[in-house]
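Dear support,

I submitted the protein below through the web form. The confirmation email said the job was done, but the results page showed an empty box. After a refresh the structure appeared. I'm attaching both so you can tell me whether what I see now is the final result or a partial one.
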Amino acid sequence: METRFSGIAACVFDAYGTLFNVHAPVASVAARIGPDADALSRLWRQKQLEYTWLRSLMRAHADFWQVTGEALDYALAAYAVDDAGLKADLMDLYLRLDAYPDAVEALRQLKARGFVTGILSNGSPDMLQAAVSSSGLAAHLDHVISIEEAGIFKPDPKVYELAVDHTGVAADAICFVSANTWDAQAAAHFGFQVARVDRFGLKDERIPGTPKALIKSLAELPTALS
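What the results page shows now:
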């Protein structure tokens, strides 16, 4: 991968898995689930993403809150978890996701250096506002953009165009940051300069689009943009 960025005016971040730890809710109630907790959390995330893609292809859009709940229903049933209040508790925790430890400081530095900052996410507006507020990121973000404006989920190009529209910055002057391989590559294919955060040790997908940089932590981003 290339490592040099040039002419960047805005930094736009994916939210879930990049800024926010999507596995924190299950981890906080793992004792109620038992030894399958980690596997259930991974399945919940897998189905959450799969349902966004399937609904987009089916032209049967529902917002991310509904999709997240349906994916959780699947995961709970798959592991035969019988706890009447668990779904409600997990969904509530999803509104108050922890930010990764590197997120706040990276955004603070980027904002201080004059970059336009934002989130571009599958999340519904209410979900994003709740997570941004509870995580301490709000003061460091200029834009919080939901795909609901486009009415379709990532990786449809109409979603990435929202970042251009909101920031007023050309696609090739936006650094897009994601820990999701498919999202990073689709964003690069759209025309962003992309940094992929290697949070999960994943290999690149066999789809179009090549990020410019692979970073281990968001702490590396301000230096990469110097």
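Response: this is the final, complete result; the empty box was a page-load delay. The first helix runs from residue 24 to 28.
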